[in-house]
Task: inverse folding
């Protein structure tokens, strides 16, 4: 997801005349078809975490930078500078903070961001972090034809691989959106995991029309994303509405609950959002709070997906289904 980015509407309903028919008039086959197209399947929480940890912490950063205005055809130096802050200032601050805590993280980066800032992309990988696909130019994939969506994601994989020398194994779709063709595209392009959906607190297997896919989902949530709290756009109603320390309290509560459950605390941030001084303070205090527990496993999303994938080999039982 990204700052200054609003969730785009989903694709028009397909099947019969559902596209021109009010949803309350849809036949049952239509609304059931939509709700079963992409769903959460088997939970993939392990019985124990590596290093004897009680809980896992998966930090992620969407390095969107200038791609949000560029995607929308906005070329104002002011709007571009707002994104440039993430590359010029925010990313470096974030990396130094992660080094202080020895915490690996995942950076989902649009290919255009990587082309604009190749040294930054290489630095992520060079310092032991993961780089993942986040679209070509943070495009709105629900507005694309299936072939165009596939082409852009494939180009993004190729670009990130060429720049960093590391082929991404995970994807976070721009704006966390799924079109009718997104899941099949992700499967066809060989990704190990996705991190765009919200059906659980813990990793799970993605199911397509009732069929398990083998794709691991590391779920996200708006309450664990910095952009909804801190986004500012002076030409519309998007305004920061939460004090940074209130966000810290929310995130601490999220972590504490995950720790009690022996589960996963996943967080999504943006260098050009969290990287500002007063906001980086709360990330530092959050990491202090997490690190004080001792028995916590900091993992990249790829490492977490690997542990989750191991659960696919377990025999199913009533305890492993919901």
Result:
């Amino acid at each position: 997801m990204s700052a200054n980015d609003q969730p785009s509407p989903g694709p028009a309903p397909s099947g019969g005349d559902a596209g021109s028919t009010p949803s309350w008039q849809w036949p049952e086959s239509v609304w059931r078809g939509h709700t079963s197209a992409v769903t959460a399947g088997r939970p993939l929480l392990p019985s124990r975490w590596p290093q004897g940890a009680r809980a896992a912490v998966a930090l992620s950063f969407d390095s969107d930078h200038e791609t949000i205005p560029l995607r929308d055809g906005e070329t104002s130096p002011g709007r571009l500078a707002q994104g440039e802050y993430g590359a010029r200032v925010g990313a470096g601050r974030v990396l130094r903070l992660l080094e202080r805590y020895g915490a690996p993280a995942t950076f989902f980066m649009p290919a255009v961001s990587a082309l604009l800032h190749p040294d930054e992309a290489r630095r992520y990988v060079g310092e032991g972090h993961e780089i993942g696909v986040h679209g070509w130019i943070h495009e709105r994939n629900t507005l694309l034809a299936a072939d165009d969506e596939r082409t852009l994601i494939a180009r993004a994989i190729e670009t990130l691989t060429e720049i960093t020398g590391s082929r991404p194994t995970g994807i976070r779709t721009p704006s966390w959106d799924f079109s009718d063709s997104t899941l099949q595209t992700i499967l066809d392009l060989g990704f190990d995991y996705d991190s765009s959906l919200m059906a659980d607190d813990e990793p799970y297997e993605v199911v397509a029309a009732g069929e398990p896919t083998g794709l691991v989902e590391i779920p996200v949530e708006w309450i664990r994303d910095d952009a909804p709290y801190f986004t500012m756009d002076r030409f519309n109603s998007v305004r920061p509405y939460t004090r940074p320390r209130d966000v810290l309290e929310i995130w601490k509560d999220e972590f504490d609950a995950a720790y009690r459950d022996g589960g996963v605390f996943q967080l999504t941030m943006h260098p050009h959002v969290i990287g500002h001084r007063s906001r980086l303070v709360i990330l530092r205090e959050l990491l202090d709070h997490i690190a004080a527990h001792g028995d916590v496993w900091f993992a990249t999303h790829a490492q977490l997906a690997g542990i989750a994938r191991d659960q696919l080999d377990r025999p199913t039982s009533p305890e492993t289904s919901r």
Remarks:
- The chain has one domain: 49-313.
- DSSP finds twelve helices and ten strands in the chain.
- The longest strand covers residues 55-62.
- Confidence is low (pLDDT under 50) at residues 6-17, 318-322.
